[in-house]
């Protein structure tokens, strides 16, 4: 079975390698060819353009945002040239509106569109332990699922409407961003009294908040380990912006998300645009006149 | 060894019963005598007034808020009459400023003051599985710790300054309140697209947010089980207000806490003052024009 | 001199009639022809399509939002067919990004683009007393200014970059929305103590806040006169959204604008989408459990 | 007629001098005697203690905050020693709760309490052009009014309940703080596009926002003239905190006030505690990475 992969960033590469390991024939395309060449050494075929990657039974795309996908998948003509029945599995975190538009575009062309945004950072992708939120056209979902399982710890079905997987993904990333900002504020609060934030985090993650997300992020914050970035701060801003837009489209105010959005913008204005989004927490210390570094 | 207990609300009673189980001699006082009588049947002695409960080596107090403690412990004259060397362990969640004041008052009288606010709801207290944050005068802490362990899953030492335990407690409750509001907003977001909030919560607690707090509260929210209240909404407002005041005293802005405070006030204005503080999450659905009930 | 007018809503009609009064030859286009026919009776010529309205020395457009202008001016082919040297004066409140894009599109075609968003409600437009913020290609501005003065109380030049007029307009509308929400909150605060909000507003507008905006809007709020709408609530949301987007593009957090945005969304969710944006103030009373009506 | 004056800060001194000008016999007390001596040269009598200043038909107090008034007026015993029928006019901005408590204390002692908080900065007080919000026991109000008119541009009656004047004062100062923060954000928004904030302010105050408050404060912001302080930043924080507390006591959320409170705390944390509260606006530029100075 031939599988296309479009986008070999630090997430997409992990996905592609897991597909190769399973013995699938993988044809890959990436804007900067270097990433493709590395994968070719691991046994992949090199696609000359996105359309060639679309000449497959199932194509996975993992790109940074709506307009990039628009250009690579639609603008390039790849979608028009794709054979009827092809299944396109979009692993990217996109806006709900864009997911709906993509679903319609695929239907018109007799292609099936599956939204499969993932939870997990690059190391988790490489380890094939991602949590995958999956929704879309049923036959496409049926074809995609066994392949998703090649790099997923678990696949979470979310029904026939592709964008439902995206809105759930945005809700999860909003919850993460809210957690990061809250860890920052709570840490700055105790720090003002001479209590080490790390002690607070130790207590939180040792009791009520004993969750992977709290352990990972409170650790990064306590150690001020904001580089290298697993997920850059501007991407966090993007996801919170998309969550706010999705809320607005259904008249759902998200006041916490609004505060987090402002905090992201402030962090970028203060020069943290290349840091991991856990650096969002540093803002609470900075605003208190006690910057972390 | 004689142990005093002041305040037999749903938390204090659990503490007292665990002390009794251990064979300690417990002398208890409570404003409404009914609660004391029930405890007397279990072997406790009834104190005629707070001062009598203070005639003990160690006295635990578990009362609702600063001014109540002020009145019961100071206003009643109990503190003045207490024998030098008595250790007072305050399990209540109080303001940082009040904890500092109590510490000073005790020092003046040769008494030792220990702040030991607890994490856990009434059922946890009854089960003797509370997490206890403990700070204060070292000899008092040394005396208190073995007794705290009678009803604690773990005792977390936080140094010599009593109020440090209180600021950490406030930071934890702020983090809980932020989590509840965030669960509400994230749930309302997906609900706007026809996705069951319970499905989002299942994914969150099955992946990144697999923590006791998330499981407990997302369950209460998904089932709209806001009564009976384990911790009433106005108490949540109180703790967030105290966190904000503690932040202000150290020039630490807490924008998320400010949003949560407004949401608590709105919930009370909408008639939820007798519900559990998990009902805070209902506000997000109400503001979106899709009330939970 | 021939002047085109595109868009005859309650603002555009006022503009067109003032141009007619001045004796200019006005050729008008509007999606729904009824509005054009009314204007034809007043002496205007009817344009069959936007391109015909563009066959003029200066064309004014007053449309609701970016995508409508995109469709009517660009999508219709009007811009392509326009004669070199034509000046297009866009009176609409658009996004900064869209204004930059329009400016570039016009330059490519040898047309000059002038941004001239206006301050004032329909009655003010009819009276020819608008305040006009004006920026863009200098020769176009020179040509537009005497015409703008036909319906302006004052024209405020803002330089060569068209979008500068738009960002100032967005800043003004954000300030108005902040004022409306603040009037609502301040009114709800005193109302909680039995003081009539109208009494507070009387004191404010009689002292520190003796400004037209405060008098107009506090009057509408005190009299709960939210219909008919001079400026509909969703248009207010749009402008605050555009201000937030313009801020984000320059890393400028606008926390007050974020709160106002959430309040607009909530008002729409509560059913106020057809009311005047002064109804935003009603939210403060609703959240306090004391709805205005 | 003998008039007492307690508190000769930059506001109180202006009041006292206007009373002296009118030929009233003024007996003044101030913590630091220097201010009294200066006034004695202008013809005032020096009170040895607050009680002596209370030996008058009408006593004005102008002190910084609740606890200072508590100490000077109640703690000093002045109130107990005051002759029945004495009218105490409190010009200070105090909390609603404190005003209610003072009103009750005075009633118990057969004294009449009048709340008369003022709108205006020191120069306005010196010029005798303050706007005075006045409420309380009717006979006391009747006695106070002609005296208030000696330094007031206008006296605004607010009924029999003293605290009503205080809640209106807090609402006005909240509206001012909201305006300052909004001017900062709107200015930072246009500044991001190379438009001088002063140009925006010129347009605002030349059109919709042609009000004294907007002219005064936008001028101070445009000129970065934050010292000397007419009203210090921490006093602004105090008033917004009191407005929030007054709102909470009546279940009235004030989300804009919450944002402003956080901004005040941040400004103080950044070192602006001795600047005028107009410096609040500088925060918006600082958060955007473009500090004003």
Automatic annotation (TrEMBL), chains A, B, C, D:
Residues 165-281 form the 3-hydroxyisobutyrate dehydrogenase-like NAD-binding domain. The keyword NAD applies. The keyword Ubl conjugation does not apply. Keywords: NAD, Oxidoreductase. Residues 2-156 form the 6-phosphogluconate dehydrogenase NADP-binding domain. The active site is at residue 169. Coiled coil: none annotated. Gene3D superfamilies: N-(1-d-carboxylethyl)-l-norvaline Dehydrogenase, domain 2, NAD(P)-binding Rossmann-like Domain. One of its GO terms (molecular function) is oxidoreductase activity. Pfam families: NAD_binding_11 (PF14833), NAD_binding_2 (PF03446). This is 3-hydroxyisobutyrate dehydrogenase-like beta-hydroxyacid dehydrogenase.
